[in-house]
Amino acid sequence: MGSPGLEHPGCTTRPSLYITHPHVNPRVAWLDEAEDIKPPRSLLGLPELSWPGVYLPCYDRLVIEENPWVLGMTEAPAPAAPSCRTLEPGPPAPGQAQASSPEAEGQVEERCLEQVQSMVLGEVLKDVDTACKLLNIASDPLDWSCMHVQKWLLWTEHLYRLSQVSTMFQELTGRDLCSMAETDFRQRSLQFGEVLYAHLDIWRSATALKERCPPEESKSADEDSWSEVMYTYPSQPIHLWQFLHELLLKPHSYSRCIRWINKEKGIFKIEDSAHVARLWGIRKNRPAMNYDKLSRSIRQYYKKGIIRKPDVSRRLVYQFVNPV
DNA sequence: TAGTAGGAGTAAC
DNA sequence: GTTACTCCTACTA
């Protein structure tokens, strides 16, 4: 825990910080503090009902926990991944060395909270970007057709276990969806309407911010290369191998269903075959997609020299022939 | 039982 | 023509 990064006011060591599931109890809290810090909404630049995720900046990175209702991450994650942005402590505020006056402490805390805000927004925007690319939809919900809305609903439903929610919001365009109040969402789905409304609200806030201040890209070299391959011709349909690689590039979201075994060699493992197949089916509008069919498509890549089985063949483990 | 491998027909682009 | 989907049989761990 000696790594520099987000500094807790008055602490020399780095505590774990969570942003809890916001529509339950929106707050930011240093868990090893006796008393939680509960910053105002303006801290995150997010609406009251925030992103359904749990954020844990340990050491120098921020991890978004996939399951919003799990708040059990207390272990520090592995060393920072290249794609994760680091937190810079920034220049010391006047008087910080001693941090003796309440004014100085306030400045430190303010800067610290700004770091959190920037970090969280960056992660939210990256998630929005990822979803847009994977689903092939515009970032602005106002531009969504009924099909785009269904894609987004299926995606959200699957990601956050919002059972059957997509069936309750059928035949709606993005504009329809955006014009609905939270009560309308609750009327359609008593159980998940509020969560879905919150999710859409965050999505819209993130895209609005993105338009105001385009994010600075700080991708790693390999990520750049892959993105170039994948998005040079956005009008062309995405290939399965590209889709798999995109999932692999987002371990904070998809490591539970697909992960690298050896990134340098391009070896990866499908941890949850049904989940990956379902995501691919959503992406391709193939509701009947399953792993049997997906794996058949993967095997077609053997002949083309795109994917193969590793030298030591294992179940659900494949290898990109030409990893970047 | 689930995953692997590959043949073959079909559809979309 | 290419790519992926679908269905199938046979085999393996």
TrEMBL record:
One of its GO terms (biological process) is cell differentiation. Keywords: DNA-binding, Nucleus. Residues 80-108 are annotated as: Disordered. Residues 95-104 have a biased composition (Low complexity). It comes from the Eukaryota. Residues 238-321 form the ETS domain. It is found in: Nucleus. GO terms for cellular component: nucleus. Residues 123-207 form the PNT domain. GO terms for molecular function: DNA-binding transcription factor activity, RNA polymerase II-specific; sequence-specific DNA binding. Pfam families: Ets, SAM_PNT. Belongs to the ETS family. This is SAM pointed domain containing ETS transcription factor. It comes from Pleuronectes platessa (European plaice).
